């Protein structure tokens, strides 16, 4: 009989990349595999939570009966699903690699090659899901974000924490071997609102998810 640290808690998790349509056959995306977010969903469910997993386009499956999965494609769809689910939840974990911009115009037909000419794609900003949830966060709700940085990791992560009204932020650096996109392992630090940083060793994404869930559980008491 293991301890279930998230018993009956409702957790919303975003995971994976978003695809921003250019035309019916092309998109702007990123290399996120969704593995970290899916590991968080599995571990949260194993720890007794009812999970809403809002997943961008990924090739992963979920098995636990307490995971309700909502598949989305674009940042706008992910935003709508997250804003709908979060008010009824105890916590949100924003693990998705959301596209910051989308093409202003999505062509209805496949764009044809111009004769030798260059081509411009005009991009407009997507909504920041983390910041939007941070703005509607109620007393007692806990919000967790991720930061993947290539430079000035800690400083950027701390400013993100404040700007998005997060309770803690999980920092993973692209500089660490075996961390970040597509791998099965990750190396994280957690920075909380008190400015306290805890470093963790390189672990499987499953093991990292356990550390994050345990940290979340301490704030949900
Ligand atoms: O600002 P940056 O994208 O680096 O922040 C990363 C954090 O914000 C992650 O938790 C990510 O899931 C979240 N985010 C979001 N919506 C966006 C951009 C980022 O929820 N449009």
TrEMBL record:
Cofactor, how bound (note): Binds 1 FMN per subunit.
Residues the record lists as binding CTP: 100, 110, 146, 160, 164
EC numbers on record: 4.1.1.36, 6.3.2.5
Entry keywords, A to Z: Decarboxylase, Flavoprotein, FMN, Ligase, Lyase, Magnesium, Metal-binding, Multifunctional enzyme
Annotated segments matching region Phosphopantothenate--cysteine ligase: 11-221
Domain DNA/pantothenate metabolism flavoprotein C-terminal: 6-218
Entry function: Catalyzes two sequential steps in the biosynthesis of coenzyme A. In the first step cysteine is conjugated to 4'-phosphopantothenate to form 4-phosphopantothenoylcysteine. In the second step the latter compound is decarboxylated to form 4'-phosphopantotheine. Catalyzes two steps in the biosynthesis of coenzyme A. In the first step cysteine is conjugated to 4'-phosphopantothenate to form 4-phosphopantothenoylcysteine, in the latter compound is decarboxylated to form 4'-phosphopantotheine.
Protein name per UniProt: Coenzyme A biosynthesis bifunctional protein CoaBC
Organism, as annotated: Parabacteroides segnis
Span covered, complete protein: 180 to 400 of 400
């Amino acid at each position: 009989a293991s301890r279930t640290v998230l018993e009956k808690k409702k957790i919303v998790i975003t995971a994976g990349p978003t695809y921003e349509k250019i035309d019916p056959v092309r998109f702007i995306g990123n290399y996120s595999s969704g593995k970290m977010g899916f590991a968080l969903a599995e571990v949260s469910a194993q720890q007794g939570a009812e999970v809403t997993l809002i997943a961008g386009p990924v090739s992963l499956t979920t098995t636990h009966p307490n995971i309700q999965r909502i598949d989305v494609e674009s940042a706008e769809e992910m935003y709508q699903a997250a804003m709908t689910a979060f008010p009824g939840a105890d916590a949100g974990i924003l693990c998705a690699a959301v596209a910051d911009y989308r093409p202003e115009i999505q062509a209805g037909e496949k764009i044809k090659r111009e004769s030798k000419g260059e081509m411009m794609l005009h991009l407009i900003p997507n909504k920041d899901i983390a910041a939007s949830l941070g703005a509607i966060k109620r007393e007692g709700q806990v919000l967790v974000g991720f930061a993947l940085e290539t430079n000035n990791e800690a400083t950027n992560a701390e400013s993100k924490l404040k700007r998005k009204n997060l309770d803690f932020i999980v920092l993973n650096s692209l500089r660490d071997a075996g961390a970040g996109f597509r791998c099965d392992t990750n190396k994280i630090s957690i920075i909380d609102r008190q400015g306290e940083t805890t470093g963790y060793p390189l672990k499987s994404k499953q093991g990292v998810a356990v550390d994050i869930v345990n940290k979340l559980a301490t704030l949900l008491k």
